[in-house]
Amino acid sequence: MAGVQVSNLSRNFGAHKALDDVSIDFADGGFYALLGPSGSGKTTLLRQIAGFDFPDSGRIAIGGESVERVPVERRRIGMVFQNYALFPNMSVADNVAFGLSVRGEAKATIASEVQRALDLVQLSKLGGRRPHQLSGGQRQRVALARAIVTKPRVLLLDEPLGALDKALRVDMQIELKRIQREIGITTIFVTHDQEEALTMSDRIGILRDGRLVQEGPPEEIYDSPKSEFAATFLGDANIFRGETTGVGIRLPDGTAIAARAGATLAAGAKASCAVRPERIRIAIDSGSADQANGNVLRGQVSKRIFAGNNSTYFVERDGQTLKVIVQNTGADRLAAGQEVLLRWSPKSTVLIAAN
Amino acid sequence: MAEHVATGSRSGLRSALPLLLPAYLWLTVAIFLPLSAMVFFSSMTELPLSGKAWSFTLENYATFFSERLYLTLLLASLRLGLEVTLWCVVIGFPAAYVLAKVLKGRSREAIFLLVILPFWSNGLVRIFSWAMVLREGGILDTALNAVLPFKINIDVMYSYPAVVIGLVHSYVPYMVLTCYLTLQAIDDSLIEAGRSLGASRLQMLRRVIIPLSMPGLVAGAALIFVPVVGSFMEPRILGGRTGTFYGTVIEDQFVAVFNWPLGAALSFILLAVVLVILALTSPVLRRAA
Ligand SMILES: Nc1ncnc2c1ncn2[C@@H]1O[C@H](COP(=O)(O)OP(=O)(O)OP(=O)(O)O)[C@@H](O)[C@H]1O
Ligand SMILES: [Mg+2]
């Protein structure tokens, strides 16, 4: 097992920069999610690390060993594909055995290793089946068993759960995480699903147009996004745009919004503030608004979406629609048309420089 | 439940009948009628030309077994069929692989066109072109002697190899096409998965690609083997005196000797033998896949 270092990696397809100077340190034994919109270069990055494709410039090291020019066969990586890519002409056991048998391992070794891998993914009874006789989730487990049985240095997964339905996906997320912890393998996981990225990974990297936008632990990216893109791509955020004042920003209509202390920007520069919908408290506007403890805005409820354990209110304010998520505590619900006050703490407000 | 399904499919069949009718009519006219006519001919003593008397007999079938020549020629034709089929696999499969998995875009289309070009040229033109290439003092001979420092005599014309070359050239597109189709259907991610597990290209070929291509190989082999065993044009023109095969003998019965009954009987024996061979080999090949 080993960590992976990617430094200044670039890959162009013609004039298109699929990867543009990307540097990430994937820690040994960590679970890393690569997140980004379609076409942002996630697959391209994974393929460079796997060795299916080679970068135009930059370095890739696995366990400290430089591998940019090493083909995939000799990189000792394990790969799981979105469509599973199981060999249809072989049984489940033969699929899992494939990596060991092309290496010329002894028959007895192969048999016991395959059994161990199938036990690990809880498919020990299905070794004799053909891939087409399995369900989607079972195929995914076989693909995982096949990838890890050779004891690769890194496990790479390209949207492995994308083809599964929601309930099965949650099961597989837990399962995958359990297996990853059990064997402690460095894992790089590409996903479209931000919730998946948040719940499963130790660190997340967000890609956009081939560039790494932000990188860090899920909590850090969620609580302190460094760009509007990161704020809105990972989770939901209300964005206010205006000019910096020193402690926050001033909106075009003169309203001041105070932000968390720490970030300092030159006064008068363009900037924005991001606030998560669940950090805002909503109350009926009784006319007396005291500005003392935090940010306050007036608005009017335009819509409420009930989702069981919470409700999302859409609040109109000065031509902008703000989202507020309220836990279902059984308290009175607000109706559309209601004049409301929105309050939140400056600590929940992130100041972002305009890009 | 089962009853329900059964009635459902029966009514499905009834509504499909008008659609199937033209196909069945065509099959009747194009295959069933001529075949029945040939069965009829094969059991006649004489062609009923100019009012000659004739009766039913199995004599024509007996002729095959009484004269060793026919069996010898049949075996030679089967060997020819096997050899040509093997060469078509050896040439056609790699070509199909390159087309399906290596080439992309424009170059794929261009090469594809080149591969199936023989399909569109007239068979006789093709064969006579080979005759010009292969004969002594022909294109191959002249070209090789122009390049090589020593004098060699290339005279492949009127020989077994010439027949094989002509037939392989005519039939290799079938193999390329059937293999291309099955190779196309193999997802590239399977090959990538194999490589990520450490398999060399050769190991991938042997353990994944060839087994998955088996349906295409079997279909191509059947498409080639059957007509080659009965072929007569290539053997006659490119083989000369050495080009006597089972197919040429059948052709003789029809166009030269005018012994249609014997020709028809010999054809049916060939058909039976070929069917038996296909029936015996296809399960074996399928299991290998
Ligand atoms: N082989 C290729 N040739 C040309 N362009 C390519 C190639 N592979 C990828 N690209 C381009 O590079 C960009 C990044 O593609 P990539 O597949 O890495 O995106 P992705 O983030 O994985 O997207 P998705 O979430 O849709 O899978 C895209 O604009 C894509 O069109
Ligand atoms: Mg992708």
UniProtKB/TrEMBL annotation, chain A:
SMART domains: AAA (SM00382). It comes from the Bacteria. It comes from Mesorhizobium wenxiniae. Signal peptide: none annotated. InterPro entries: AAA+_ATPase, ABC_SmlMolc_Importer, ABC_transporter-like_ATP-bd, ABC_transporter-like_CS, Mo/tungstate-bd_C_term_dom, P-loop_NTPase, PotA-like, Transp-assoc_OB_typ2. One of its GO terms (cellular component) is ATP-binding cassette (ABC) transporter complex. It catalyses: ATP + H2O + polyamine-[polyamine-binding protein]Side 1 = ADP + phosphate + polyamineSide 2 + [polyamine-binding protein]Side 1. Pfam families: ABC_tran, TOBE_2. Keywords: ATP-binding, Cell membrane, Membrane, Nucleotide-binding, Translocase, Transport. Its EC number is 7.6.2.11. Belongs to the ABC transporter superfamily. Spermidine/putrescine importer (TC 3.A.1.11.1) family. GO terms for molecular function: ABC-type polyamine transporter activity; ATP binding; ATP hydrolysis activity. NCBIfam families: potA. Part of the ABC transporter complex PotABCD involved in spermidine/putrescine import. Responsible for energy coupling to the transport system. Residues 4-234 form the ABC transporter domain. The gene is potA. GO terms for biological process: putrescine transport. The complex is composed of two ATP-binding proteins (PotA), two transmembrane proteins (PotB and PotC) and a solute-binding protein (PotD). This is Spermidine/putrescine import ATP-binding protein PotA. It is an enzyme of class 7 (translocase).
From TrEMBL, chain B:
It comes from the Bacteria. InterPro entries: MetI-like, MetI-like_sf. The chain crosses the membrane at residues 23-41, 84-103, 110-133, 158-183, 204-226, 262-285. This is Peptide ABC transporter permease. The keyword Transport applies. It is a multi-pass membrane protein. GO terms for cellular component: plasma membrane. GO terms for biological process: transmembrane transport. Residues 74-281 form the ABC transmembrane type-1 domain. SUPFAM superfamilies: MetI-like. It comes from Mesorhizobium wenxiniae. It holds the Pfam family BPD_transp_1. Keywords: Cell membrane, Membrane, Transmembrane, Transmembrane helix, Transport. PANTHER family: INNER MEMBRANE ABC TRANSPORTER PERMEASE PROTEIN YDCU-RELATED, INNER MEMBRANE ABC TRANSPORTER PERMEASE PROTEIN YDCU-RELATED-RELATED. It is found in: Cell membrane. Belongs to the binding-protein-dependent transport system permease family. CysTW subfamily.
